[in-house]
Amino acid sequence: MRRNFAFLLGTVTGACLTAAVIGPQGAHLVAAAKAAARSDTYTQLNLFGTVFERIKTSYVEKPDDSKLMEGAINGMISALDPHSRYMNEKGWSDMQETTHGEFGGLGIEVTMEDGLVKVVTPIDDTPAAKAGILSGDVITQIDDEVIQGMSLEQAVSRMKGPANSKIRLKVMRKGAAAPIDVAIMREIIRVRPVRFKAEGGDIGYIRITRFNEQTTDGLKKAIASISKEIPPEKLAGYVVDLRNNPGGLLDQAVSVSSAFMNRGEVVSTRGRTAEETQRFSARGGDITKGKPLVVLINGGSASASEIVAGALRDHKRATLIGTRTFGKGSVQTIIPLGQGNGALALTTARYFTPSGRSIQAQGIAPDVEVLQEVPDEFKGRAELKGEASMRGHLAADGAEQTGSQAYVPPNEKDDKALNAAFNLLRGVTVNANGPAMAKRAVPN
User: Fold this and answer.
1) What pLDDT was estimated at residue 274?
2) Per the similarity annotation, which family is this (predicted)?
3) Does residue 377 share a domain with residue 323?
4) Distances from the Cα of 295 to the Cαs of 52, 162, 310, 344, 398, in angstroms?
5) Where in the sequence is the domain holding 146, given as residue range(s)?
């Protein structure tokens, strides 16, 4: 604890020292502000100590000090923004498993909203997806235990477990008259972040479901395999499907963008400190050799997905088709806190596309908007409200935009966005705002 307090006080002191260089005339004001800040900080710390001691001595049962401290840390971080969070040692270990791409559990991407766990998206071909869990579902109970009052890490930890063990979830779904009970058998989740196929003998289709440590390698293998299957003279281009991709690692977003760009900035981050203000540029060269590119996005495309989409559009390397993205334009830095203490995922910067545009609470609008036909049973819950609807979100640099449709038809023939991408690459339709596409005969 002493180290944490020193950091807080050091931050206040540093701010005052920075102000002190303005000029001698403001010295008295700086000194007064410094004293007031210190006084206020110490008052709050004393109050915390008083409450902590009162709970220890007077609570009806002897409390667990470590749980009290973890609760206090979680409470402090929850006052920041929806994406900053504390992970205890187990939560930190679970997150490392997730970014490596293999863990035991259900296969859902979740966030915390109003004290409950909300599904961002189920991962393709996982127990959650097979059981019918949908984007926007709110999980209220896990094995009859109420989630209200748990941290996100605690809830996620309860959903993970050994393969072949059963879990029961109670789910609230918009449009449903009553909560839905769902029984799921856990499996080893091997997140395969990239899937691909050759479509019609002339188009390479690549779906990226998340950005973990295996994504760039998977993308390179996909392009190499498609290039072998379709001769260069017949390859009309690629469709990269980022729909309902919740994001992941920043370095993977940069390297995926680099696979389609010869040069140029991919993304920049801007924070309070110089070290958090960085620019990331393409490296390695365009491995598709300049083939036309269409990127599919929707209301479930977030974070790293938005970085890739924004970079490729700003450089006029791709045409974006679909609906407005989620609008998560902030970077979380993982800060390990030492052996046994877990880690802190702290929002340290906003990110900006190469043109200098912030995505935060605004998202990225497609070049060509395509709305899907939503079946009656999914109407009313086929849209995600986006970052702008999350309580405590960072404000946008401009007018905030709500989310958009996130429904993807399970049958490709019903997928209007995907078919629009195929038609664009084959020259059946033309997008005046996007990169030029070579007109060519439609294969039959």
Assistant:
1) 85
2) Belongs to the peptidase S41A family.
3) yes
4) 52, 37, 10, 33, 25
5) 103-190
- 328 catalytic, yes or no? yes
Q: Is residue 251 part of a domain?
A: yes
The Cα angle at residue 130 between residues 363 and 412, in degrees rounded to 5: 60
Query: What is the C-alpha separation between 147 and 117, in angstroms, rounded?
Result: 8
What's the confidence (pLDDT) of residue 111? Answer: 79
pLDDT of residue 304: 96
Q: Is 241 a catalytic residue?
A: no
Name the domain count of the chain: 2
Query: What is the structure's pLDDT at 36?
Result: 60
Are 366 and 235 members of one domain? yes
Write down the catalytic residue from 314, 330, 367, 404: 314
What is the percentage of the chain residues whose pLDDT exceeds 90?
A: 59
Q: What letter represents residue 270's amino acid?
A: R
> In angstroms, rounded to a whole number, what is the distance separating the alpha carbons of residues 103 and 334?
19
Residue 360: inside a domain, yes or no? yes
pTM: 0.74
CB-based contacts of 285, cutoff 8 Å, min separation 6: 258, 262
Say which residues have a Cβ less than 8 Å from residue 238's Cβ, sequence separation at least 6.
203, 204, 205, 206, 223, 226, 288, 291, 292, 293, 294
Query: Can you tell me the distance from the alpha carbon of 6 to that of 11, in angstroms, rounded to the nearest whole number?
Result: 8
Span between the terminal Cα atoms of the chain, in Å: 69
CATH number of 345's domain: 3.90.226.10
Query: In this structure, is residue 226 part of a structural domain?
Result: yes
Of 261, 265, 346, nearest to 295 by C-alpha is 261
* Active-site annotation holder among 258, 303, 358, 404: 303
pLDDT tens for 178-224 read 999 999 999 988 778 999 999 999 999 999 998 999 999 999 999 99
Would you say residue 78 lies in a domain? no
Mean pLDDT (the chain, rounded): 85
Active site includes 174?
Answer: no
Q: What is the pLDDT of residues 51-71, one digit of tens each?
A: 999 999 999 999 999 999 999
179 and 204 belong to one structural domain? no
Distances (CA, A) of 68 to 72, 312, 341, 391: 6, 47, 14, 25
Of the candidates 328, 330, 358, 404, the residue annotated as catalytic is 328
Residue 108, pLDDT score: 86
Q: How deeply is 39 buried, as exposed, middle or buried, from its count of CB atoms within 10 A (0-12, 13-18, 19+)?
A: exposed
**pLDDT at 269 > cutoff 60:** yes
